[in-house]
Amino acid sequence: MQNESAPAKRIPLQFTVEFRHNYARDEDVGVLRNISFSGAFLEAREHQFLVREKIKIKFLVSGRERVIHARVVWANQKGAGLNFQPSNNQDRQI
Fold it and tell me: Is the pLDDT of residue 75 over 50?
């Protein structure tokens, strides 16, 4: 049984995604470098993230475009640690 305060197990990957801040019109491109059920690390070296800001991540899964909401938990010059903010069961399944 996993301790609820322990971070979820991360799976390394290299998956290109588009993302944008909730208030922004333009999308940027980044790379998910690891992922878990609860969040991911988004590498985007040319981008500045602020802790607690919300972003939308867009990607393809099985040939279908998906959008998931996330909140920035921490940020550095390489990218940001994200916490997924699923709003329904379909978001959780993705």
Answer: yes
